[in-house]
């Protein structure tokens, strides 16, 4: 991992090591990928004020998110199918996050189950919830998260229907991968991945085991989502979620000021300004362009977290400058996972930490509390 000096290095390594359909799945955005590109482009447009001759010999990247102490202002975002990037991927990622002192979010659509991860790690993690039509099953997921002592529930609200990612349709994305010649040839050229997966024997959605008939068979991901997820989900359901989850509630997928206000009134402890990494509403604005207005509207009552396009410590600094309490990072850590399992995720976090620390120094900042819009031009 020593030669991996930036997130792009990890991305290139993941591209070589992860079977094509699963690497493509990570890269993809919805439809024309306009929103996917906007997330990156709008972050890069923000330039820093270079400040000099400030004593920056003592710098601290630590802060708190939802009252939890974090060693830098990030959390690992929920990623469905994480365990298809590296065998037992969710366990690897959670261990790396906990060793680095940042929160980890386990996705409903993870390969390792809540119980698999809870058994393998020492500290609590966050659990991300998708609401499906079968509310009894949703309730049981929440009960399992409570039993596993998850420290926050991340309710994702921007995926009632799936924004199409063309490449997933073309690749016939499924778990486990269909035993087609193309997939078999691809796996043969990724022997490390294949060997680890065969040893781990975790090939399908751990949290959903036994839930739906035929779950054991090959499952086309988009097809499953469109049959199971509840398009009727609405604000009244937040009350129900609140009634079954007494702990911290993070509503993820807010991009509009009006929705931010409603989420805040509905009792969210925090919101995540997110367009799902450009994977849902193509044509939606970038997240960084919406962040300041949302912070202005609800920031004094509700913690505002940010995601979308964060690929460096500089990007973390940009989001903090515009009022985010912290950033969820998605692809940046998933590339690390595909590149090298736990060590790869640890490397990704370390890269972000060092970049943030240097950016703080060169903008004349020594603590996270000092970061505000004055660090930007
Ligand atoms: C491969 C992949 C899978 C994802 N799966 C989920 C998921 O299961 N639940 C969820 O709430 N968000 C999911 N997301 C969205 C991320 O949590 C996050 O919002 C997004 O990745 C942030 O953008 P970034 O990847 O540019 O950092 C996924 C994103 C990616 C790239
Ligand atoms: C299995 C998917 C619904 C996971 C997801 O949220 C995504 O791919 O963006």
UniProtKB/TrEMBL annotation:
Organism: Mesorhizobium jarvisii
Swiss-Prot/TrEMBL keywords: Flavoprotein, FMN, Oxidoreductase
Database matches in Pfam families: FMN_dh
Binding residues annotated for glyoxylate, in chain numbering: 25, 165, 276, 279
Cited SUPFAM superfamilies: FMN-linked oxidoreductases
Catalytic residues (positions): 276 (proton acceptor)
A cellular component term, taken from the record's GO annotations: plasma membrane
GO terms classed as biological process: aerobic respiration
Cofactor (UniProt): FMN
Classification via InterPro entries: Aldolase_TIM (IPR013785), Alpha-hydoxy_acid_DH_FMN (IPR012133), FMN-dep_DH (IPR000262), FMN_HAD (IPR037396), FMN_hydac_DH_AS (IPR008259)
Sites where the protein binds FMN: 78-80, 128, 130, 156, 252, 274, 307-311, 330-331
Protein name as catalogued: Alpha-hydroxy-acid oxidizing protein
Family: Belongs to the FMN-dependent alpha-hydroxy acid dehydrogenase family.
Keyword Flavoprotein assigned: yes
Molecular-function annotations in GO: FMN binding; L-lactate dehydrogenase (NAD+) activity
